[in-house]
């Protein structure tokens, strides 16, 4: 992803994200894991990051719009909306 204001570039290795999630499962096999994808997966692409983290038990998002985007893209796991309704 490239920042519009300063031109900084972040390269996200989706395979590394998936590997890290597997490591957490390996060391904490009894724990449930919620992958936080709020703010467009912190600017790295909501659907792309969700696709890499499908082994998480749930997704956490900032707003209902992000939850609806995940549902529309076919993700069917539990989604927790952190902001609530106003």
What does this structure look like?
- The protein is α/β, with parallel strands linked by helices and 86 residues long.
- The protein has helices spanning 14-27, 38-43, 46-52, 64-72; strands at residues 34-36, 58-61, 78-81.
- It is 42% helix and 13% strand.
- Strands 1-2-3 form a three-stranded parallel β-sheet.
- The radius of gyration is 14 Å and the shape is globular.
- The chain starts with 13 loop residues before the first helix and ends in a 5-residue tail after the last strand.
The helix content, as a percent range, equals 40-55%
Q: Which residue ranges are poorly predicted, with pLDDT under 50 across at least 5 consecutive positions?
A: none
**Biggest β-sheet: strands ordered side by side in the sheet:** 1-2-3
Count of extended strands: 3
**Share in β-strands:** 5-15%
Q: Provide the structure class.
A: alpha/beta
Largest sheet, described in full?
3 strands, parallel
Shape: globular
User: Rg from C-alpha positions?
Assistant: 14 Å
What is the N-to-C order of secondary-structure elements (H for helix, E for strand)? HEHHEHE
């Amino acid at each position: 992803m490239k920042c519009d204001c300063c031109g900084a570039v972040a390269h996200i290795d989706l395979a590394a994200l998936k590997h890290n999630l597997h490591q957490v499962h390996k060391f904490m096999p009894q724990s449930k894991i919620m992958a936080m994808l709020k703010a467009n997966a912190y600017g790295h692409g909501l659907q792309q990051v969700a696709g890499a983290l499908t082994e998480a038990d749930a997704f956490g998002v900032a707003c209902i719009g992000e939850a609806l985007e995940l549902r529309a893209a076919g993700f069917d796991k539990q989604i927790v909306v952190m902001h609530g309704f106003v």
